[in-house]
Input
Amino acid sequence: MATALAIETSCDETAVAIVKNRQVLANVVSSQIALHQPYGGIVPEVASRGHVETINWTIAQALQESGLDWGAIDAVAATSAPGLVGALLVGLTAGKTLAMLHQKPFLAVHHLEGHICASYLMEPTLQPPFLCLLVSGGHTSLIAVRDSGVYETVGQTRDDAAGEAFDKVARLMGLGYPGGPVIDRLAAEGNPKAFKLPEGRVSLPDGGFHPYDCSFSGLKTAMLRLVQKLQAESPELPLADLAASFQTAVVNALTKRTIAAAQDLGLSTIAIGGGVAANRGLRATLAAAAEPLGLRVLFPPMQFCTDNAAMIACAAGEHFDRERQSPLSTAAQSRLGLEQVLTLYPKMEPPKQSPWVLESLKT
Output
């Protein structure tokens, strides 16, 4: 399989990795958490400038870590969608430049496909079909993985992504940014049954509820009202119990829908991807629910849950081995459906030579 060098700059991590045959040879991530903490969230312009400042260092560090030179690299890849356009442009421009400079094929990669492929880094023998629960700060989806580049979204959040809900609830509890890790730590010390919170079901027009879609806006509102009520009663919030109750509501909603989708679709393997895949409550609850049903659940290693370039390189390798590549004219896109992944790899004709070049070659 291909040895791919990939760049990931879709949001607030500058990452470069080299992967061969689903084995990570180098994985460098420069986090921007400290840059965005004063604002309580990600500022796109700050993210873009941060990528410009660190991109050259991360590329050099990845090559040094791998011990490879450019002669050993088969292809160059970069995330092209979805994400913050300014941030994407930094990595995409760097990737195209390296591909041209070293005369390597270029592959534009869909960020969400990268999260799906993160499970390949833990389980190199994994092959479709399987179900992927992709749960992060920007996305919460249940995806039937049919083949490389062939995906069907069967369920998703109708509003906030799970990770976004964690961040917003952490902010209203006064816990700062990012919210997911701190709520996860507090939840381990609290009572998950201390407060009853809504599940986040999505109603259907003809009655009943959608089996796989979910909503976290009602849960977020319920937490806001609960916090306001508790603050009126006492200046000190029961943070651990609030965190445990909130996390349990999110985890139970995700687990219920994931197990139902796997059983209904006849898929025996569930791969988890995205930053919220690092949540200990989700890992324990989903694994416990799947085991008696004979379902296999795969969680990527912690370093491959959040945004990283190893997952992008792995996705690029899957496409390169199928003789796919992307034109250097590929643009950065803030939105691109996962079902449109293969549009990133159009069948490319050899470049046409001008009459002057052809004449020069003859002489």
Observations:
- The chain has eleven helices and ten strands.
- The mean pLDDT is 93.
